[in-house]
Specification:
Length: 302
Amino acid sequence: MTTSPRRDISGFVLVAGYMVLWLGVLVVVNVVAGLLATVDVALRASAGATVVSSALPGWVVTVGLYLQFAGMVAAIPMADRLGRGVFPSLQGEDAVWSVRLAWVTPPRWAWIAAVVIGSTAGWLPGRLADLLRTLAPAFNLGALDALNDAILSGPWLARIAMAIGIVVVAPLAEEILFRGWMWNVLRRGLPPWAVWVVTSVLFAAYHIDPIQGIALVFTALALGWVRWMTGSLWPCVAIHALNNLLGVSMAYLSEQGTAPVGLAVSGAMLTIAAAGQLHIRRITSGGSMDDDAVPPSQEASA
């Protein structure tokens, strides 16, 4: 009796190892950034400058963000090669192949849901983050504050670069990692619903800041659901980019930066409704909930 590839836990172990290493790196980066901020404040104070904030300069945050995304994507093939050396079951597969599986054209109806979800999925998390910062200020590591400071202050070139990083680079890098490589690696040994939940939780945990992570679970679940229902990364990237674009726009246009409670709840309801529509369209088109969706373009090329 042969063992089914779906019972192979090598992919799960590989992803778990990647996340432990990456989260450890991010913790170190945050500690170093805090120390640099303290030194920066002391130097400016000793020079007689008025110290307004202990945050790092915006250009430092921007460069750090780009380096983080570059390292995130570069680590994928490195971890993949290491995994193939440890687990024989991974032989013959590589990260590029795994990610390429997800770059398929989704059904046309998926784009409508993507616009709705991208426009509304961030309202509730934004309001929830504000509430959590009020209720548990000790858990606020200041990640969102640092990003907002980099967007709203400093040289215009650095501010534009930060906006591009958040709206364009972040959606591409994070979707390639979580709902591209990790999704395809984990589905070797987990059912689709478990892959959806695990990648969503890992996506939230990756952001390190407890408040931001908890608030992002809703958005992460929405992104994972779209990946599951459509079998494609394209609508996920579109949703992620639109969500971040609205967040950056709110930061520029409003000091409040988050939606009122009623609007936040309405946004969550619209997101859930659009996600439900994706499920209905998948079922009515003959899809099964027991596996990932296979878009028409992939079926044609198979």
